[in-house]
Structures are given as C-alpha cells and as structure tokens.
Design a protein that fits this description.
Blueprint: H1 16-22, H2 27-40, E1 46-47, H3 49-56, H4 65-79, E2 87-88, H5 89-101, H6 104-115, H7 125-139, H8 145-159, H9 169-178, H10 180-183
Antiparallel strand pairs: 1-2
Helix pairs in contact: 3-4, 4-6, 4-7, 7-8
Length: 197
C-alpha cells in the first residue's frame, strides 16, 4: 500500500438532484461540471480565485487579457457568497447557472454584484467609476476617466431616487432601462460552448 496520488471523489455535500432543482443545469451538466471543478479543487473541495480563473478562462473571452482578468476577479467575488475567499461547488454551480443560463432578472442581480465592490448592497459612484475605468482602459488607448466620471454623475443624478449617494438594487434596475450597456456587461464576456449539453 504505497502513496498513490489519485483524485478524490467529490464529497456528497449536497445532492446533485437538489442542485438541479435549484439551478438551470441538467443533472448531466452538473455531473460534468463537478468533474471539471474536481480537477481544480483543493482537498476541502473548494477553489481559490486563481483556480477559478483557470477553470473559466476558456469560457470567458474579452477584447484583452487585462479585461478578462478583471472580469474573472469580479465574477469570483460575486460567486463567493460567504466571503470565504474560496468557492465551494455549490457556490460555483449556483453562480454559473445565473451567469450562463440565468433569466434577465437573475443576470441583472449578478451584474449588480460585479459593480458592488465592497459588498455593501449598494453601488457608490467610486465603485462604478473604478470598474468602468478599468474596463475601458483595456479597450481605449486614451484616458477615459473624465468621460466616465461625467457619465456616472449623470446616472446618479437621474437614478439615485432617495439621494443617498448610492444605487440600491432597485435603482440599479432602473438604470438598466436607461443604460443597458452596463447591464450587458455579462453578455460581453460569455462564450457558451455547446458541448455535451
């Protein structure tokens, strides 16, 4: 009985059938995703931000590596619902379900989480400027900071209904009607490969 390295089977933390009922994935898709997750997973069946990026890089495409890196960083933080700095399989599947197959409403809530950097439940101007600035700096070669600030000031002027200096999820949903490009943020990155569906 030597030391033989092998991939440990996924722990039955939650039944796959239960995840099927809670997500937009089929049972076969969950099993396939569990195998992929397991390849990257730590012994406690979680993945770190780096492992997450390695897992999703082939499914997320962008106009630059820097923008892809930023998007995956933000997506990890949105999936990490317990703020443990790692993602378990349940968080992974629930997040992917929304990202890849979610309704417009679910995707809007996920995109809200991408902009809510400090996880306060609201978006402040500095958070929106930060994300938009980083994304646009990867696309445009000239500084867009001033244009972004003006756009963000206008958004907050129009949509900060209660005047508290931040956007709630409700106010953000109103923003989707006025500025759909901010909500379409998710769709810009998703490349769905239709293998084994």
């Amino acid at each position: 009985m030597g030391n033989v390295a092998s991939i440990q089977p996924a722990p039955p933390s939650r039944d796959d059938a239960e995840l099927k009922d809670e997500t937009h994935f089929t049972l076969n898709e969950i099993k396939r995703l569990k195998k992929e997750f397991q390849k990257q997973a730590n012994p406690d069946f979680t993945i770190t931000k780096e492992q997450f990026k390695n897992t999703l890089t082939k499914h997320v495409h962008c106009w630059s590596i820097g923008a892809q890196y930023l998007f995956l960083e933000r997506l990890f933080d949105a999936f990490d619902t317990d703020r443990s700095k790692s993602i378990d399989f349940r968080e992974f599947i629930q997040g992917l379900s929304v990202f890849m197959k979610g309704s417009a409403e679910e995707k809007m809530e996920l995109s809200f989480k991408l902009y809510d950097i400090d996880h306060s439940g609201s978006i402040e101007p500095k958070e929106l400027i930060n994300i938009m600035g980083k994304m646009y700096s990867e696309f445009y070669h000239e500084d867009q900071t001033q244009k972004i600030r003006i756009a963000v000031e206008q958004i907050f002027s129009d949509l900060d209904i209660n005047g508290d200096g931040s956007l709630s999820l409700h106010e953000y949903k109103l923003m989707a009607l006025k500025e759909p490009m901010l909500i379409d943020f998710l769709e810009q990155f998703l490349i769905i490969s239709h293998e084994d569906n």
